[in-house]
């Protein structure tokens, strides 16, 4: 039996852990209720930068999972927190949706295509040749290149969609510049999440469904890592990696 007595706060991934294609997974609602009843500090994390926390909270509530917006931490918020520390009140040319533009607006960033400090790329369904060209030219002219997350594809009902990582690869090929990626598996996303809830690595647990993002970033951030088998990981997948989570559970129901 794994000892969780030292764990006083939790970070959890969203897709594959709490929900799957809009459906709440077993134990998820009970776990969130337990944390809320016990005043346990927690955050629900997602690499998706399309939606604001308010949008995501509404979507989760509609699906039967009551997560307040202040309990949601997106790669867009983590990116904004990073830029706010690096260059407060800077400027950025943004390719992304409301989740990202709102997060940058909230830290006082100016969004411009006139000599910006950064080009910031997030998840979007609306990029076009013109804004890709603009991003490439701005990076070539000296703007620093940031991406919210490295995911190459995202899910849809009809199959995979190209995601931030794929678009970033196109820009990298055209400019020779790799982006600095803030979201998972960069442990910085976990550190900024812990700062938000006043948590410490030695007493924080991270629940995820992916070895290559959630678990590796959790290990690098010094967290107690829990891999659940409700997402993409199975025994064969787990065996491929040279590292192991602290514990492997069938679902979050085992934590209730």
Automatic annotation (TrEMBL):
Its cofactor is Mg(2+). The keyword GTP-binding does not apply. GO terms for molecular function: metal ion binding; phosphatase activity. It comes from the Bacteria. CDD domains: HAD_Pase_UmpH-like. InterPro entries: HAD-like_sf, HAD-SF_hydro_IIA, HAD_sf. One of its GO terms (cellular component) is cytoplasm. This is Putative sugar phosphatases of the HAD superfamily. PANTHER family: 4-NITROPHENYLPHOSPHATASE-RELATED (PTHR19288), HALOACID DEHALOGENASE-LIKE HYDROLASE DOMAIN-CONTAINING PROTEIN 2 (PTHR19288:SF46). Keywords: Carbohydrate metabolism, Hydrolase, Magnesium, Metal-binding.
């Amino acid at each position: 039996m794994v000892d969780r007595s030292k764990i006083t706060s939790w970070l959890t991934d969203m897709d594959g852990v709490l929900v799957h294609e809009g459906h709440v997974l077993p134990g998820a609602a009970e776990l969130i209720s337990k944390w809320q009843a016990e005043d346990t500090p927690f955050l629900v994390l997602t690499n998706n930068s399309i939606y604001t926390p308010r949008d995501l909270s509404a979507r989760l509530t509609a699906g039967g999972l009551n997560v307040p917006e202040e309990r949601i931490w997106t790669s867009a918020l983590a990116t904004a927190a990073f830029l706010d520390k690096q260059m407060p009140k800077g400027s950025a040319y943004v390719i992304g949706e409301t989740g990202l533009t709102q997060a940058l607006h909230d830290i006082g960033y100016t969004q411009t295509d006139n000599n910006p400090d950064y080009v910031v790329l997030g998840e979007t369904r609306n990029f076009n040749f013109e804004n890709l060209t603009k991003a490439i030219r701005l990076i070539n002219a000296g703007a620093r290149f940031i991406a919210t997350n490295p995911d190459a594809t995202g899910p849809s009902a009809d199959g995979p969609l190209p995601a931030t990582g794929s678009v970033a690869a196109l820009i990298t090929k055209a400019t020779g510049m790799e982006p600095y990626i803030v979201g998972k598996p960069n442990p910085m996303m976990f550190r900024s999440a812990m700062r938000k809830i006043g948590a410490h690595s030695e007493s924080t647990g991270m629940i995820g469904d992916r070895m290559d993002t959630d678990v590796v970033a959790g290990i690098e951030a010094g967290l107690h890592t829990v891999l659940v088998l409700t997402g993409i990981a199975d025994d064969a997948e787990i065996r491929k990696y040279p590292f192991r989570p602290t514990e492997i559970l069938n679902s979050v129901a085992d934590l209730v």
